[in-house]
Fold these 2 entries.
Entry 1:
Amino acid sequence: MTCFIIQHIPPGVYAGLMNIVIIGGVAGGMSAATRLRRLDESATITVVERSGHVSFANCGLPYHVGGVIPERSALLLQTPEALRARFELDVRVQTEAVRIDRDRRVVVVRSLMGGSESELPYDALVLAPGARPVRPAIPGIERALALRSVEDTDAMVAAVGGARTAVVVGGGFIGVETAENLLHRGLAVTLVEATPQVMAPLDPEMGAPVHAALREAGIDLRLSASVTAIGERDVELSTGERVPADLVVAAIGVRPDTGLAQAAGLEIGARGGIVVDDHLRTSDPAIYAVGDAVEKADALDGSPVLVPLANTANLQGRRVADLIAGRDVRDRPVLGTAIVGVLGLQVATVGWNEKRLVAAGRAHRVIHTHPLSHAGYYPGAQGLALKLLVDPGTDAILGAQAVGRDGADKRIDVIATAMRGGLTASDLAELELAYAPQFGSAKDPVNMLGFVDENLASGLTDSIQWHEVEDAQRDGVTVVDVRTPEEFAAGAIPGAVNVPVDEVRDRLDEVPEGDLVVHCAVGVRAHLATRILQASGRSVRNLDGGYRTWVAGMASRS
């Protein structure tokens, strides 16, 4: 993170009568305001919000569009009147901060209702302007709706009422949520994503089930395509096709809203966010910044990152209030823990993915497993795909991904907690996690990740990844499939030899000479076969995650 020299402000300097101005509400701004009031009854606290709503559930907006949350009022958490009554806050909605006069320590604000300007003096200023939707220079982009505010939601709900077709541009978290909810409203939905996969935090083989779910639900998924023009009733794609679109939603991503900070001469980082230190101070010691507009420190390498997540914004708002009140706390680095629901799937991530590790040239160990969400003998168990990324030198957990219809949230949260606590991947085997058959397994999927890591870290076994199999075969390695003949006949890796696991000991002489790659459906049976073959002196690697991971990986290439 960029460093700068600032004037030291000792704890407690702001104690007593003081003016605190907060620009921006919702997660970061309102957390700061309400925490400040709980810490200091004497301060004058003013919140300036450009929109008409200062406290709302922005993560619930797509679900109101889809009718899952039927009442609009459920999204509105607090009103200015309620905030004044309970917290004695001066909340000014539909009011825009025009400029910051740092020398005089005043903020010039303008009412969007009447246009009049006034000045707000401050002893401490908190910037929480959030992020703005990306609006690329596409002809007709003005027709595309965004989904960041209650006003955006109202506009989209109104537009849905007269629409039959919709195109959602962008396959990130908001894009897939919006596509699903427009589908719920009965629209024919096309989802356009410029890259080969939706949901960039996932690795390709983990994204394949998401693609399948979208297509099976009837969403027309267009990958590696972009929108080149938006017409009155359709959009033109980079492929030359025109797709019907009564409604167009731009969900291409967001950028930090830094216009006010830049105009005030505050430092902006290489990632485009406001630079803050670990006390959330900007390059002006009287001005703090929190939330989506600021650059955060990555928990793995300390590099500046943009993480527009509500959890982080809320915590930063709380921390900045503590700091202004004289409490010596520090901002925490971020892991980027996130989850989204997609047509019944839970898709969760934490830390770095394999794509980022490869791009950074960082060594890593990969583990795929496919456990059930709870004990298989108890009704309702669902399949779950887990991926763990580990530093092979230190055994530190670098990241994880989970995709499934149940249990992904629990497992990612456990792994995120382990990462925060500095546990190693092998330590996951030792975690004492709650067990009853309807909730988990005696060997929880997180424990199983630890067991696999122990085997790899100790050298007991070795593994190979799905994308390495083809090259290994070209080098003369034989793939041995230890599933049943029926499973093998239903689909197999080209060139594989079928020797069921229960027959391996008796058919050792039938296994071709040379190095081997062994696999089953998900890796469990193959582990036993690997140990049997190793005991007979063979050089063997287990296909990580088995045939199921290989199939998903190959599907991601199509």
Entry 2:
Amino acid sequence: MKVIIVGGGTAGWVSLAYLAATTDVELTIIHSEEVDALGVGESTTPTIKHVAEVCGIDEVQWMKDAKASFKYGIEFLDFNNIGSRWMHSFDDLLPGQSFHTPITEFGKNIFKKEISSVEYFLTQRRRGISNYDIDWFNNSQGGCEYLLSRHLSPFTKQNESNFSKFPGYSYHINAQEFGNSLRKHTSKNRFTEIKGHVNNVEYDENGVKNIILKDGTKLSADLFIDCTGFKRVLIGNMADFKPYKGLINNAAIWGPVYTQSYRPSTLSIAQPHGWIWETPTWGQIGSGYVFCDDFISTEQAEDHIREHWRKQGLEWNPIKSSKFISGSLDNIAVKNVISNGLGQSFIEPLEATAIMVSCVTIRNASKLINKHKGWSSKSSIILSKVMTDFLDETMEYVLGHYTLTDRKDTEYWRAYDTTNILESMSNMIEKKLKKEWVYHAETNLNGYNWASMLIGYDKPYLGKLPKIEEWQIKNYEFYTKQLVENYRYHYQNNMTVKDRLEYINNQESGNNLS
């Protein structure tokens, strides 16, 4: 089977490296060296760790290449009201069975459709028990808050990782350099690289028949992956872009702040007409302002973010501004063409979904290729359904950050539709709690994620809860307190983020592909 990837941005190289590692297809990538990089620092989810591991790149190597730093989650400041804080961490639910069954990394396969720590926690909140707030929830769930508050890395002073793989930690990266690292460390025997431009596309009843390059070269394949961004060179004539309803942000400005930060979290700070992000990579902080230009101009937004950093004694350096529309293609894949990257979908920068979606797309495509020993129109229908469901749910989760808020201080915050938001959020949590646990590098939003946001915004859960006896509550409280003590003991020997990043960036470069 022959696969051609068109486009050499992050989505293109992620697609190529992952297929090279997981399939036996014949791969060709066509790209121009003229890559228009969108960011100065991107926030990611644990899926990227899975992709790098599958592709065989040593973490130290690619983190150095991508100027990466560690991330345990996103801190949302002032979103519910001015002065509020919610940490969306990568911790996970703990099944009730774990209080009397030893937990192993493989043990989570057993814990399905059981009462979890989320149900215990929501029960106590409904009972009006004091001290059941989001910080207690996060600290009782896992080590993310513990490590974040102390700026500790996931590695011990003996350079051994002691962090759970379910779902794991993530990174702040330079996305273009991450793509370059994948390019550099994928065996040259696994793909053909062509530097050039697609000048014309020929279609037939099976989809794309041929692509013709600027130099006249004509190429055909069984499957094409369109990673050409908003140009949608291959799939543009085969699918329509549909905007999402509810998300009103449509513009962003961004640039670097030249200072070193070792904070292992992304900061998202709500503003009167949008929000500011702070993404610390090695040597600088990427920072931008996401807003709706119905309420504030680009010039006003730029003045606002400059002042934000001036108050911290630092200078923000603008690089780029852009308009965008939140939405996705009505069909992610059509016949023999898959769309991946920004041309496929863009929710908005909140919650670091862009690179995650690219990784999820190619993971699912790889599974289908291996399952069906090839690609067909049926494969495209399946992939489109899976990805559309994934994108719609992720979009709803992002939208919840705006519709759960108590903020009504500006026209911007009053513009969001909050009708029945608690009912719909509670219904989603109830549905999610009936499903099984996440696995290593899983990206599906589970009950913990949804409940965490609801509690982080200090809102009541309106859904059904199982009957939990008093003795079960006492067991839950006892064992979760023991877990917190265990984290303190387990992580006290960890390197600081600063020490770990300095170690990484002092290593000699080399090809660490297995």
